[in-house]
């Protein structure tokens, strides 16, 4: 089904994409099971291991591939054409290998030292309580939307570390082992049903200082792990690669919806008038608009990350105005892809209303992706416009 991938082979990108295409039929077959169980099947997790997907952004020193971000996102989009939930979990969980590479080496060794295939889930919203104690922090509370958490042995949790009065906020990611938290099975949704994005609950867990990552370090691209993992991949802003991990699935969803629409419409004949649906001007224009929008979304993504990596390879700081523009591109793409799917859904007729219709699934799942906080374009759009008009950025998750 999939080919082994090694970091030192020249055609790693082609192998990964070939593996993603090879997995599409089985991922489609597993959709009923995935949605009924409300999480990815263990077979899918295993297939992604064998295909090399979880290692795409992992450091080579732990057996990872360190691929270009564009390869990572192209694989995610390819998976999303077949199964939105699988692509969502892939994007979110696999990107955590990239962030873990920014942590202190002790944290990396704790997670990957004995088993480099260990996975990490997350919930970054700072909804828990953080107390400073000797040697680190004590955290308690509830964090929601931890996609893929059933298959992970660690979790990244967001929170504000206590600071002295007058000091700037100190938001961090806290790395916590599975033995210190409980998963609450509350993921009952109408969209992205198979992501298993359940709540993580903690009562007074200790997190040593070395198992925390400052968001300010991620913004400056000056992280504890950069001395260990010095590839250009790990010298781009955390906010850029994470937000794309939750927006890029939408491009694959739109591409999958377009492929399905074309396959149905090409041979459809109207029951009432006998006309071929493929000759309907509305259908033709919808295909043209959809294909163009999807192509533009991919081109913008590829251009942005090519530019980021070029800055990192030259050892140059990325201008803030470029980071603001990239953040806008990431949030806006989901709205654009949602519009694509909405139009195709409306042209499919009443058959799209059935729950077993792929178009119904694409429609629900892309609206689920649009609901993510990072995929709301209003705030990033206003910030982008404000910076263009001479204002200062209000967003530092860039």
Give a verbal description of the structure:
With 398 residues, the chain is α+β, with helices and mostly antiparallel strands. The chain has 3 domains: 12-118, Acyl-CoA dehydrogenase/oxidase, N-terminal domain (Butyryl-Coa Dehydrogenase, subunit A, domain 1, Orthogonal Bundle); 120-212, Butyryl-CoA Dehydrogenase, subunit A, domain 2 (Beta Barrel); 238-388, Butyryl-CoA Dehydrogenase, subunit A, domain 3 (Up-down Bundle), CATH 1.20.140. It is built from 13 helices and 8 strands. It has helices spanning 12-29, 31-37, 42-51, 69-82, 84-100, 105-112, 215-220, 238-247, 249-265, 281-314, 320-347, 358-370, 377-388, and strands at residues 120-123, 129-133, 136-146, 154-161, 170-177, 182-184, 198-208, 212-214. The strands form 2 sheets. Strands 1-4-5-8 form a 4-stranded mixed beta sheet. Helix 9 runs antiparallel to helix 10, helix 9 runs antiparallel to helix 12 (358-370) and helix 10 runs antiparallel to helix 11 (320-347).
Assembly type of the chains comes to single chain
**What summary fits the major beta sheet?**
4 strands, mixed
Per CATH, which architecture of the largest domain?
Answer: Up-down Bundle
Major sheet: arrangement of strands = 1-4-5-8
What is this entry, summarized?
This protein has a 4-stranded mixed beta sheet. Strands 2-3-7-6 form a 4-stranded antiparallel beta sheet, with no helix packed on it. The two termini are 38 Å apart.
């Amino acid at each position: 089904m999939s080919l082994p991938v090694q970091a030192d082979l020249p055609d790693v990108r082609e192998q990964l994409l070939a593996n993603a295409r090879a997995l599409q039929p089985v991922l489609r077959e597993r959709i009923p099971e995935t949605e009924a169980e409300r999480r990815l099947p263990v077979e899918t997790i295993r297939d992604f291991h064998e295909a090399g997907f979880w290692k795409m952004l992992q450091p080579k020193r732990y057996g990872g591939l360190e691929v270009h971000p564009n390869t990572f996102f192209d694989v995610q989009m390819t998976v999303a054409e077949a199964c939105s939930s699988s692509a969502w979990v892939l994007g979110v969980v696999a990107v955590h290998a990239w962030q873990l590479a920014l942590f202190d080496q002790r944290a990396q060794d704790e997670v990957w030292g004995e088993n480099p295939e260990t996975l990490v889930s997350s919930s970054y919203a700072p909804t828990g309580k953080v107390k400073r104690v000797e040697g680190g922090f004590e955290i308690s509370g509830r964090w929601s939307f931890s996609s893929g958490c059933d298959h992970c042995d660690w979790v990244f949790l967001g929170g504000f570390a206590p600071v002295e009065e007058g000091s700037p906020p100190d938001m961090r990611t806290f790395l916590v082992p599975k033995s210190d938290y409980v998963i609450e099975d509350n993921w009952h949704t109408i969209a992205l049903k198979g992501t298993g994005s359940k709540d993580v609950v903690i009562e007074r867990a200790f997190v040593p200082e070395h198992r925390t990552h400052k968001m300010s370090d991620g913004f400056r691209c000056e992280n504890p792990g950069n001395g260990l993992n010095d590839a250009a991949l790990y010298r781009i802003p955390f906010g850029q690669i994470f937000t794309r991990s939750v927006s890029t699935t939408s491009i694959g969803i739109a591409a999958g919806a377009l492929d399905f629409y074309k396959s149905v419409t090409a041979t459809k004949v109207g029951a009432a008038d006998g006309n071929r649906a493929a000759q309907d001007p509305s259908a033709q224009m919808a295909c043209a608009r959809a294909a163009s929008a999807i192509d533009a979304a991919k081109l913008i993504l590829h251009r942005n990350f090519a530019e980021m990596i070029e800055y990192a390879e030259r050892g140059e700081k990325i201008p803030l105005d470029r980071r603001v523009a990239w953040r806008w591109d990431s949030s806006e793409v989901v709205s654009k892809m949602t519009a694509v799917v909405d139009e195709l859904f409306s042209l499919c007729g009443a058959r799209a209303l059935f729950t077993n219709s792929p178009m119904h699934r694409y429609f629900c799942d892309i609206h689920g992706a649009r609901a993510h906080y990072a995929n709301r374009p209003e705030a990033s759009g206003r910030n982008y416009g404000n910076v263009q008009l001479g204002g200062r950025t209000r967003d530092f998750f860039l």
